[in-house]
Design goal:
2 copies of one chain form a homodimer. By secondary structure, the first copy, chain A, is α/β, with parallel strands linked by helices. Chains A and B meet through helix 26, helix 28, helix 29, helix 31 and helix 32 of A and helix 26, helix 28, helix 29, helix 31 and helix 32 of B.
């Protein structure tokens, strides 16, 4: 028979998966001989079983709970339901991963109409007893019975009004007794039955409520954001109550072994005498700094410091502890590795190594790669943020915080920015013409488009904060305002964006600049020492390439050449090429693009200082370079010396029902090989130029969207012929390689064969995810919400590699490719390349490198180190 | 060292792959002691090597050719290049599969200015000698040197004009000599060098030309149509010339051992005295029926009949033979299994069994499943077709031949049809409102849309001829005409369509009705006896279901329920559902659809007489049910009592960038589970109704577009709950199963897991092909032409299952599914289900059934028998 319930003294810290963090640590502290109010943990497996059984706790588990309860009674010397000396307990959630505030807690459980009198008598404090009872009724009703707290607050406030008092503490025992009566009457009225008097019923119902809270919307949302599986479930801790509000020899507090903001090694925390935890939170009384406890009660302080030192050394990490002093006796209610700012995380990790507590590898594992974002981008000032209200949410498309005046055109953004005014560019969606405005904006907000929309990709490259695809924001670009929930925000109004969460605020929030300390360099150096996966960047221009190089990128894994064709004069030449009717006309237009493209590549090569540069050939369907609206077509036709009908006909002939699956990638080059000839000429001539000027470039030419060996072979033959002719003509030696994206399921399946021509693979996991799932990234937003709500998906497959489906194809492709070419270079250049979970997966399947946007390079470096420390490569 | 060249006497009929059909059969006849002009075959491997070597014949192969030539000289007792007794040869292509007329032939090779004199002297017939020389110059120049025949015809015609004569035969030897001089001068003028005099050069250049002709456009097109791999290459046969034009004791002819039109066992053919093969083709003289040869030359006739009888028995098939009589001596130039009409194919196969020459299995293999189409659909009268001109081509979307007056609206089609006039409905594309017009039309022509467009799918179901997606046909529906190459065809003009080839004719061509003989039933009964794969049909209405049942369908493999929602009142209710704002509103609209859907299912069940019926739940994106154009939206809004803006907003909110990868299939039911509840209610209530009335239905409920187990589980739970409640309420017993389509790559990859919930699989190879290749079927037409031209693809992956990519996924899914459920039922319901090659593949990977459109059911039955005979299931 499975064991579902563990006494604290039966367990230890290694049982975190089974008992949750809180339960495992309470057990560990018990084992360490620390003063912990005793109790037991109902395991996460019991939670899973609760859901399997159709949201009920089966008899077996109920029996185990009561068995553990009896053993606890023996330990604490009190009996549950004994009205003379009532045994009160708290019921708290505790999942494997910390999910602060997401689930529910019930305190003072065990009180009823009789026990409250016993408690009054025993403590000789009727006011305390009835105050505890009214708190319990409120909490139980709220958490277990889903009766809103406001029902009780109204009664409470009314009493205070009647008595003409302001502070809760002014209420007498008699007042509280009357309030309890009022609460119970309200409960009866709302539920049609009296408030449950049987402590056992209270207990089981409360445990069920905690299990249930695992599935509440905020918990689900939090899990999705933090990639915590629904399957894990939560444990429930049932623990003897201790009271910090039993008089001036009682109290409660929280403390950290180091400063969680700065990481400084100084004991940090606060406490309140004669109070319960809630009172601290309620903010009615101002807590004292923990240091004053030393003066107030030196013995307790000494004991607490000894415990906390021991805990930090034991867990080898900064601890966040909760304690209560009941009538002069210290109790530890919780310890856990403390949450900390990114800066503090670095400092603590490095200090713990210096102090000899951690190895470098262990220290690296203490820093969450995702946290680094906060070091590289501006953040909101916490105090300024505290009072701000989220008006809408979008996709967290590019991290950082931004505040500024809303503008609706790139031109206006440039004007205001010139005057030194911070602006947020707000658009339905951005297009290449908006680049200039995006470059000067503090942040970019779009109402349409996904994580790989133009706005998102460009902003990430620039390191500019961006919230994309905020569907509830209705942008009226013509009249220059946007509307959210009926409220309009006009040009010049202050708004703020959090690109790391997707939050949008309708007001100014002060930001603080990113600060990169020496600790950052130290940690990154360690990361580089322990990783085996290389980290490259996705960059299409020298500016982004330089940023990435400075962040430690070891090459360019993806240069999207089409981005080079959108700016200024270039798009004109591109459009000339598109409307060409003959190969000759097309070649004339391409000849105009050649010098620009060559210059682009020279810039990229130079910024990479000898690291490899992977250049992907033209990928998007040609219609992306032409306007759609008749008005714009007419204008362009005039500009190009065409009739409207001619240009319209071109636009229509390029229209596709499913452009994602249309005439793009290698398919374009098959139809128009002259494009590949031009691009090869630029790649090779630029490399020769750079090498002749002291550089050392080995270009990697990458053919996109290949699904069949012959596609690749056809194009590779053209590339090699063109390249070799140029090289021979220049009389130089130049190495280059030709490889392919693996982004079509068929390419992954046939990787072994494709590797006979491909000299390297790069996984394009954006497209591979789209086709493996049959999801259009542009459209999936409409139904992914339903998928989360119905627990079909726990998170977005475009954010984290779907290891089961897409990942299986990747593994096949890695194995297949290496069958043909033993040491074949393989990377990933999809959005997933900067996602720590996906980096871990890429490490484990044996990729050579990941490539990500410049500001994600440090994250990927750290994630790669984590992956290799956890699972070292042979 | 590889052997590339074989004397006829070194080879035999089993070497067809290496030596081509013609070469292998010439060898076989040689072995059988038949009178064959001797020679040798340059193998198909030499052809492949020719392409590998960059279109040259390497020295090794050249040496082998001349070696074989010398040995042939010894056999025939003549020497190549001997001007006294010149040794002349023919050079003919001969591929593994017969490709009549697709490649090139050169006769009389070996002639030059000296040899022609030798030939004149030796034959004592200068006219014959110079006539042979001028024919050789023309052929060699045309085939080898790419000099158009018209250059020579002009000279020839000019001479006839000068002499004032009409018939070629009136030209004298002297005339022909002058003509030869003229030809040679013209050759020199065009090529800058004299006509090659060295017979060895002539020979090697001619062999190269035949190899080259393997890659000519018409050969490529023919191969693609007949699914013949480019890799096979062609062999080349070099054979001693014999002359049927050496006087009245010479002649040439063709004969069949049975009548190729009817299959009757009567010797059939024609011959001409004193003539070469070309003369028969040129039609200047009318050949005599072969039976007259018996009178003209009884000895030769007897010899020929003995040979032909022996050949038929030897090859166990009707033979198509070419022969030449040179100066009273019979020579066999070719024998092959003769091409025949579908009707003849059946009769011959069955007669050969009756005659004890073939087993039933062997007889089945003699009938090409694709040929059956011709038995089931009208065809053009050959004489009427002969003179007709193809004005355009589209996709061969639904087979058969049709002729009638062009109409441009369904209404007009109905009007004219009522008057008994045959009509062809011409539309840009069809929509559900056109159904009535399609039902009365003889054929349907669309200018847009692919093999699975509305027009194609509906026409196939009806068995109506359809040519779809004819891009060069510009349809002007408003002004009621279409335009092809500048010519307009107006309403009422006669046009004709061949739905089996995609040909469009701008005139009336008489058609003949399909005739199904008793032979058909016999052959189908044999097919059923030897196949293990079941054959079901794709049918959405009782009419199609009945057709399919009559054709032998063993159930419905795919009922596309959305097709039921397009007609009349139904689309109104569907649209009400779509614009609903709440679940309740949606349920009201669905309640209107329920009785109609239930009635549909009753009809289908009844027509299937106890065979299983698989019902696929709603699949297409909802926007397919709404209009797109503002005008239509306004009209519909008025009809529905909505404002234009409201309806427009709905249409816009449903718009998708890539609808193929959008909100459809199971994703719709996840968002709107009430649709699945309605559909389940209809499926189950209909089954109960039918069973209570003496039927026996086991419905199979199929969830489309599943890519993740939890999707299926979520929906299956709803289906099972709904179904079980209805069954319990009715107090009956009813079996049903719930399965899924495998049409998303991820589903194939995770089939083992998905099979824990899915009770059956059905491969949706249309979508699976789209996603595995990353090809949108609607858009791929634009670039697939380039793919064929550049030999990336040899045929359309939407027509034949891509066994390497898509097929690998299918195999994985079959293995995975059967790991979980040992005897899991698996079928295919994509377009490929009716394609014989794909049926073969489905048999080999172990599917339980294929499902195809009604008129393809016999084809699939025969293909399934072929598959099992070739590769019997254990």
């Amino acid at each position: 028979m499975a064991k579902y319930v563990y006494l604290f003294k039966e367990a230890n810290a290694t049982m975190r998966n089974l008992l949750g963090g809180k339960g495992a640590n309470l057990a560990e502290m018990t084992n360490l001989g620390m003063p912990v109010p005793q109790g037991f943990t109902v395991s996460t497996e019991a939670c899973t079983q609760y859901y399997t059984d159709g949201r009920r706790i089966n008899d077996e588990i109920v029996a185990q709970i009561f068995d553990a309860l009896h053993k606890t009674e023996e330990i604490v010397g009190k009996t549950f339901g004994d009205n003379e000396n009532p045994f009160l307990v708290s019921v708290r959630s505790g999942a494997r991963a910390s999910m602060p505030g997401m689930m529910d807690t019930i305190l003072n459980l065990g009180l009823n109409d009789d026990a409250v009198l016993g408690l009054a008598k025993q403590t000789n404090n009727p006011r305390f007893a009835f105050d505890s009872y009214r708190r319990f009724i409120t909490m139980f009703s709220d958490v277990v019975m889903e009766i809103s707290k406001s029902n009780f607050e109204a009664i409470f406030d009314k009493k205070k009004e009647e008595k003409g008092i302001e502070l809760d503490t002014e209420l007498t025992a008699e007042d509280l007794k009357e309030i309890v009566e009022g609460f119970k009457a309200r409960y009866l009225e709302l539920k049609g039955e009296p408030f449950p008097q049987d402590p056992k019923v209270q207990l089981i119902e409360s445990i069920k409520a905690v299990f249930r809270s695992w599935d509440n919307p905020r918990a689900n949302y939090y899990r999705r954001m933090n990639n915590i599986p629904y399957e894990w479930g939560t444990a429930v801790n049932v623990q003897a109550m201790v009271f910090g509000n039993m008089g001036e020899d009682s109290g409660t507090g929280v403390a950290f072994t180091r400063d969680p903001s700065t990481g400084e090694k100084e004991f940090y925390g606060e406490y309140l005498f004669n109070a319960q935890g809630e009172d601290v939170v309620a903010g009615i009384r101002t807590p004292k700094p923990i240091s004053e406890l030393e003066k107030d009660n030196p013995a307790i302080y000494k004991q607490f410091r000894e415990i906390s030192d021991k805990l930090e050394k034991h867990y080898k990490d900064m601890q966040d502890m909760e304690f209560t002093i009941e009538k002069g006796k210290l109790f530890m209610l919780q310890t856990r590795n403390g949450k900390r700012t990114a800066q503090a995380a670095l400092k603590i990790a490095i200090d713990l190594v210096k102090e000899g507590l951690l190895t470098e590898q262990e220290a690296l594992l203490k820093v969450d790669p995702k946290q680094l974002d906060a070091l590289l981008h501006p953040t909101f000032e916490p105090t300024s943020l505290a009072s701000a209200e989220v008006i809408a949410k979008g996709l967290n498309a590019s991290p950082g915080a931004a505040t500024g005046r809303a503008v609706f055109t790139a031109e206006r953004a440039a004007e205001l920015a010139k005057d030194g005014k911070p602006v947020i560019l707000v658009r339905t969606e951005t297009s290449p013409e908006d680049i200039e405005g995006m470059a000067v904006a503090s942040g970019v907000l779009t109402s349409r488009g996904g994580m790989t929309s133009h706005a998102a990709v460009v902003a990430r490259g620039m390191g500019t904060c961006c919230v994309a695809g905020a569907g509830t924001v209705k942008v009226n670009e013509e009249e220059k305002f946007f509307e959210v929930a009926g409220k309009k925000y006009f040009e010049g109004d202050y708004i703020s964006l959090d690109g790391s969460t997707g939050n949008i605020y309708g007001e100014e929030i002060k930001t603080q600049d990113a600060t990169v300390s020496g600790d950052f360099a130290t940690l990154m150096a360690w990361a580089d020492k322990y990783r085996s996966l290389k980290v490259r960047t996705n960059a299409d221009n020298p500016r982004d390439a330089k940023t990435a190089y400075d962040f430690g990128a070891e090459g360019i894994g993806l240069c999207r050449t089409e981005h080079m064709f959108f700016e200024g004069e270039r798009i004109k030449a591109m459009r000339e090429m598109i409307v060409s009717k003959t190969v000759e006309e097309r070649e004339v237009a391409l000849a105009k693009l050649l010098p620009m493209q060559r210059q682009d590549f020279i810039g990229l090569y130079e910024e990479m200082h000898g690291f490899p540069v992977t250049i992907r050939y033209l990928d998007p369907p040609l219609h992306e370079f032409l306007p759609n609206e008749d008005e714009d077509i007419a204008e362009l036709a005039k500009e190009m010396g065409l009739t409207f009908d001619e240009l319209k006909a071109t636009v229509e002939s390029l229209h596709e029902t499913n452009p994602m699956l249309g005439h793009r990638g290698v398919r374009l080059s098959l139809t128009y090989p002259e494009i590949a000839v031009m691009q090869t000429t630029a790649v090779i001539e630029a490399a020769i130029h750079v090498n002749q000027n002291g550089g050392k470039v080995i270009p990697e030419i990458m053919i996109p969207l290949v699904g069949e060996l012959k596609e690749l072979k056809y194009l590779k033959d053209i590339v090699v012929k063109t390249a070799d002719e140029i090289i021979a003509k220049a009389g130089v030696e130049l190495e280059y390689s030709v490889g392919t994206m693996i982004e079509i399921p068929r390419a992954a399946i046939l990787a072994e064969e494709i590797a006979t021509e491909a000299e390297f693979f790069s996984f394009g996991t954006n497209d591979l995810t789209q086709m493996t799932f049959g999801f259009s990234r542009d459209d999936a937003g409409k139904f992914l919400g339903d998928y989360y709500d119905k627990k079909i998906f726990e998170n977005d497959p475009f954010a984290h590699v779907d290891t089961k489906g897409v990942g299986t194809l990747m593994k096949w492709a890695v194995e297949g490719g290496r069958k043909t070419r033993k040491d074949m270079k393989m990377g990933i250049c999809g959005e997933h390349g900067g996602d720590p979970d996906s980096v871990d997966f890429c490490h484990n399947i044996g990729l050579s490198y990941v490539s990500c946007s410049p500001f994600r390079v440090p994250i990927a470096r750290l994630a790669a180190a984590h992956a290799n420390i956890k699972n070292p490569r042979k």
